[in-house]
Amino acid sequence: MRTALHIVLLAVLLAGCRKDEGPDADEPNVPFALQLPPGATMPTTPSDNPLTDASVRLGKALFFDTRLSRDGSLSCASCHHPDKAFSDTLALSLGVDGLPGLRNAPTLGNVAYHNAFFRDGGVPTLEMQVLAPIHDQVEMDHNVTIVATSLRDQEPYKTLSMKAYGRMLDPFVITRAIASYERTLISGWSRFDRYLYQSDAAALTDAEVRGWQLFSSAELNCTACHGGYDLSDHDFHNVGQYLDYADDPGRERITLQPDDVGKFKTPTLRNIARTAPYMHDGAFATLDGVIDHFAEGGQPHPNRSPEMVNFVLTPDQKADLLAFLSALNDDRSLDQVP
After folding, report:
1. Residue by residue, what is the 3-state secondary structure of 148-172?
2. What is d(CA 52, CA 22) in angstroms, rounded to the nearest whole number?
């Protein structure tokens, strides 16, 4: 199982790897032409991993390669489907032996803007995040060094690795290339964005506008946690899903603080109609179920967020709210790499 210590040690080893020289090391590398939707800002990238055409194309090739898993059966895309906004369709994602993992795999849309990863925020960078599923025994159950050795002399990895990073494929390159590709998965091409950021009043139906007004009203107060460009505060909250979180204590697994039991990262609501099932464990199959949970205020767990307040919706209001949430779907693919 993944541990914070394991990931930190791997990160230290990767950072200390020697940079190899190669025949293509001096070739120019073109910056990746990232397309940003209205309202989006340019995401920041680490100084040792700028977005370039070669690094992003290398990352995409690796993202879809099943050889990253022990038995060659799973790629990153096996749990992050492009047509589902790079989320999973299962409540709990399945690993190489068909066993369920700990949590539901969330969308990768807009991870470029996040400052902590996984639903408990246990990993601080996208580069480190790449390591966890590869090494996790119930996910890919492999070793990134073995992966690099097996792929380094094969194309397009050999050429793209040298062009992007001036070195043969190794753990340093794998983690940074996949992170680069994931940073290009920008969400924000929805009708709601045209309505909000381009003043296109015709972009939403009357029902969707009413749903947005209801969503942002003081009565529902959804924007207290689901605000901003990504419709998420990227913070951690206990929403009273359970009284007992023994199976998965959430943020407390990382901080070891009792006050963090049952707290999970606020998910983005972008493409929410495409990313069922919902919650950290996929417990709700539909958005109707999610709305009902929040309307009821959740279970009275000691750590339940004070923002969890009961409210009542008429059938028409619920329909309007669901219509608004569907308007958050992107009109185009998140994948910008041909």
Report:
1. HHHHCCCCCHHHHHHHHHCCCCCHH
2. 18
For residues 278 and 295, give the distance between their C-alpha atoms in angstroms, rounded to a whole number: 16
Angle at 185 between CA 238 and CA 330, to 5 degrees: 80
Give the span between the Cα atoms of 188 and 81, in whole angstroms: 18
Angle at 275 between CA 280 and CA 300, to 5 degrees: 35
pLDDT of residue 213: 98
* CATH (one of 3.30.360.10, 1.10.760.10, 3.40.5.10, 1.10.10.10) for 191-326: 1.10.760.10
pLDDT at res. 126: 97
* C-beta separation of 233 from 227 below 8 A: yes
Tell me the CA end-to-end span of the chain in Å, nearest whole number: 35
Please identify, in words, the CATH class of the domain defined by 4-183. Answer: mainly alpha
CA gap 4, 122 in Å, rounded: 7
pLDDT average, residue stretch 136-149: 97
Note the pTM of the prediction, 2 decimals: 0.91
Check if the beta carbon of residue 75 is closer than 8 Å to that of residue 69: yes
Where in the chain are the domains?
Answer: 4-183, 191-326
